[in-house]
Amino acid sequence: SLLQTWSVFEPMLFENRLMGLYGRLSLLNDELLPVRISLGAGGQLVCIAGPSTSVDSLLCAIEALDRQLHVEATKLGASYDLVAEGYNPAVSSPLDVALIPRARWTILSAHLGSTGRYGRDVMRCACSTGVSISHSGDHDAIQAFRLATALAPLLCFLTDNVRSFRGAGARRTQRMVRSVMWEDFDRTRCGMVPGTFDSNFTFETYLNWVESKQPILFESDDGTVLSTGKVVLSDFMRTRRLSRNEAAHLLHNVYPYARFTEHTLQISQADSLRPRMAAGYLTFLKGLLRNERSV
Questions:
Q1: Confidence band (pLDDT; 50, 70, 90) for 215?
Q2: CB within 8 Å of 85: residues ≥ 6 apart
Q3: Rounded to whole angstroms, how far apart are CA atoms 87 and 175?
Q4: For position 267, what pLDDT does the model report?
Q5: CA angle 274-41-236, nearest 5°?
Q6: pLDDT for 23-39, tens place per residue?
């Protein structure tokens, strides 16, 4: 293992509640790897490791978390293990899962409950393996975005591991549940961005698409979370001057096959994977999206 020591983790507070921990792992290769641990809307354990250029380092962080959780559970006399699956196999309805008490989740749940059949499933029961890759110039980023979009169904198929959807059991659960959920989640902000494969597609094209969508909610620098109602982002931005951080946060309120944030290209088409499977998936994407002949 590359792990040398855990650093002291600092609390992450949202709306004056402890919602996560932030710290760094000290690795034997002298790398200090940032790690954030938090909870999703339905209590899913979310671990964000990186950035790092080394897949081995990222794998080390996730495996260390697995081991540490087992150790701490044993101290409490419990037997807990992390389950890496794309959908909670123990529930028959997303309403069986309590929503974490946070304004962001309350606003999103109210909105998504009226936009498609599976909004609450995605929020409360689904879990994914997300990959963020740094931009390496405008042209390469756009080409990688196109490739990730084109491969979205394949990535979903290759990582499909849902055993039971809404209590249906293995025999009655169809393949690629993740794809089914996202297709009837909120069609206006999911799927393929219009014009992705047009020769004149640019970052500006992407941002124009984002600005045409309702942001659902807005989180200010002081942590205040507000519902934006049915106002589209372009109109909302005319009502106030945004800080860079506030503007960057609004990029996370759309869910296409691949999406741009301030510094990265994000791909979230994979179901939640066990650490070594996740490392293999990351290696596959890294090699594919960094290969000039691919993009």
A1: very high
A2: 127, 161, 162, 163, 271, 272
A3: 12
A4: 96
A5: 120
A6: 888 887 778 899 999 99
pLDDT, average across residues 109-135: 90
**Is the preceding peptide bond at 51 cis, omega within 30 degrees of 0?**
yes
As a whole number of angstroms, the distance between CA 82 and CA 61 comes to 14
Query: What are 230's two structure tokens?
Result: 């049915």
Judged against a pLDDT cut of 60, whether residue 173 lies above it is answered with yes
Q: Cα 134 vs. chain centroid, distance in angstroms?
A: 15
Q: What is the pTM of this model?
A: 0.89
